[in-house]
Specification:
Blueprint (H helix, E strand, L loop, with lengths): L2 H22 L1 H5 L23 H24 L5 H30 L6 H43 L5 H4 L12 E14 L5 E2 L3 E9 L4 E9 L4 E13 L2 E9 L5 H4 L14 H4 L7 E12 L6 E10 L11 H5 L1 H4 L10 E11 L4 E10 L6 E2 L5 E2 L4 E12 L2 E14 L5 E14 L7 H4 L1 E13 L21 E13 L2 E12 L8 E9 L1
Antiparallel strand pairs: 1-2, 1-3, 1-19, 3-4, 4-5, 5-6, 6-7, 7-8, 8-9, 9-10, 10-13, 11-12, 13-14, 14-15, 15-16, 16-17, 17-18, 18-19
């Protein structure tokens, strides 16, 4: 009878063995969320929504302890007949203690700090974020306010004291004007070589002409140019410019005559595309590098909202005259070099004229019409009763046009001179001529040597009425090109620019005279530097 109770207890213990084996498995010990097992202090608690909450974990741990204690009671009842059951009992006791410690640790953690991922922690994080952003926004508002104050204070300081500039430069912005006048020095240095057909070549004396610009203030500008030659020093410009407003400048002194386009803007050696001047400025019109003493009004203004600019210049100055007081010969009347002698005496010879032009800057077109009117150009007094003064004068009319844009530069100018010489040769002399010039410089070429090379072609012509070449002493002229005969001129040249204002010019000129052959084809070379 005693054997039967023993078998019943042994069966109950064997039924409890699977639960005890599950309690000893690695998964049970490694995860505090399982039914049994030791807590893992190095593992972070999962956020809310990804695992059991702390309350659920505590409930599970309590259930595990109750189950372990029930198993312990069953095993304890069977300990006496079996040693194995005793060992199992001891193991269950340790497991219960471990579960109890795990509960205590979890409770202590919950009391000290909320678990990650709880609604409380999320709310605290959001509050901290809002507080940090609010602090940053307040700091930015304060910085912006300080920056605005600094800008206002700096603007006020600039208006009161002016910008921070070196002392000589700051004087330009003083309301009282400048104490030091800025001086700029420019100029031209040029030398050339001329070789006429069948003659020896000749090197020209270097042309050195410094140009001075002195700005007195915003209204007055002084200009002066001094030309140093082989035999004399000449002042070609000495003028004061008064800037009345945006569209009017008043000029007084010695200035370049504003007749045509070439005389004022293209005659400089480093700007002129060929080594010499066009033929019409040697034989047709005296307005070639011509300066006079007088006054001038000039300016430019856009026509309403159109992209068209109106240019205008009007002058009144001392006129030109022949230096001799005796009746001039035909050669003197025909030579413009004699007329270009500006009177150095007090005379009543006056000259006037000007230019009216249209300029379209956007397309590079310019055109104009000019006039030059000179009073009696001789001081001859005929011995008559009563004495009679020669009253011969001359006028010049010119038309100019040009195109300059991109790689192309095209120029055209026509001149017609009416010279009264009836007091000396019984008739009037008429001169007319023109020149057309085209230059091309390939700025966009890949090779820099090609970019700096510029081919040029110019055609010039001159026609005369009232001058008989048979009555001229051709040998008396300094150059065959100065002989006033009907002539067509073809000039082929090539320029190489070392710098924008340093150019070497080579050209060959074919001259074809009508009714006479002067053998005046010529090779020309020039090195010109504008500085």
């Amino acid at each position: 009878m005693r054997i039967l109770p023993s078998f019943i207890l042994l069966g109950i213990a064997m039924l409890a063995l699977p639960r005890m084996g599950e309690a000893q498995s690695p998964s049970t010990v490694s995860n505090p969320g399982d039914e049994v097992g030791a807590p893992d202090h190095g593992r972070e608690v999962s956020p809310a929504g990804e695992g059991p909450s702390p309350e659920e974990q505590l409930v599970r741990l309590q259930k595990n302890i109750e189950a372990l204690r029930a198993e312990q009671a069953v095993v304890q009842a069977a300990v006496q007949p079996d040693d194995k059951l005793k060992k199992q009992f001891d193991l269950l006791q340790k497991q219960i203690e471990t579960q109890q410690k795990m509960i205590e640790l979890l409770l202590d953690h919950v009391k000290k700090q909320p678990l990650a991922g709880t609604p409380v922690e999320k709310l605290q994080g959001q509050v901290a974020t809002v507080q940090a952003r609010s602090k940053q926004a307040a700091q930015r508002d304060q910085e912006l306010s300080q920056a605005l104050d600094n800008v206002v204070e700096q603007r006020d300081a600039d208006q009161r004291n002016g910008p921070q500039l070196p002392a000589p430069l700051k004087e330009l912005f003083l309301p009282s004007g400048t104490n030091e006048s800025p001086l700029s020095i420019y100029g031209t240095l040029a030398t050339g070589y001329t070789h006429f057909e069948g003659r020896h070549g000749n090197f020209e004396f270097p042309d050195f002409a410094p140009f001075f610009l002195l700005q007195l203030n915003d209204r007055f500008l002084l200009e002066a140019e001094i030309e140093f030659g082989a035999e004399e020093v000449e002042v070609s410009q000495a003028q004061v410019d008064f800037i009345a407003n945006d569209w009017l400048t008043v000029v007084a002194g010695r200035f370049l005559v504003p007749v045509g386009f070439f005389n004022e803007r293209l005659h400089a050696n480093w700007i002129n595309k060929l080594p010499d001047f066009p033929l019409i400025f040697r034989q047709v019109t005296p307005v070639s590098d011509l300066s006079l003493n007088g006054v001038q009004l000039r300016g430019a203004k856009y026509l309403g909202c159109w992209p068209v600019k109106l240019e205008y210049a009007l002058f009144f100055a001392n006129g030109l005259r022949l230096p001799e007081t005796e009746a001039p010969e035909l050669a003197e009347l025909a030579t413009l070099d004699e007329l270009k002698e500006t009177s150095r005496e007090l005379t009543n010879v006056w000259a006037s004229g000007g230019r009216l032009g249209i300029w379209l800057p956007e397309i590079g077109l310019v055109a104009g019409i000019s006039g030059f009117f000179n009073g009696p150009y001789t001081a001859v007094v005929f011995e008559e009763d009563p004495p009679r003064r020669a009253n011969d004068d001359f006028q010049v009319l010119q038309v100019d046009a040009g195109y300059h844009k991109g790689n192309w530069d095209v120029r055209f100018e026509y001149a017609h001179m009416f010279q009264d010489a009836r007091s000396f040769i019984g008739e009037r002399i008429e001169r007319r001529g023109l020149y057309a010039q085209v230059a091309y410089r390939p700025y966009h070429a890949q090779c820099k040597y090609v970019q700096n090379t510029e081919p040029v072609f110019r055609f010039s012509s001159a026609r005369f009425k009232g001058i008989d070449p048979a009555g001229l002493d051709i040998g008396a002229f300094a150059s065959p090109l100065d002989v006033p005969v009907d002539r067509d001129q073809y000039t082929f040249g090539v320029n190489y620019y070392f710098y924008p204002s340093l150019v070497l010019k080579l050209a060959y000129e074919f001259n074809h005279e009508r009714g006479i052959d002067l053998k005046d084809n010529v090779f020309l070379a020039q090195l010109a530097w504008g500085f």
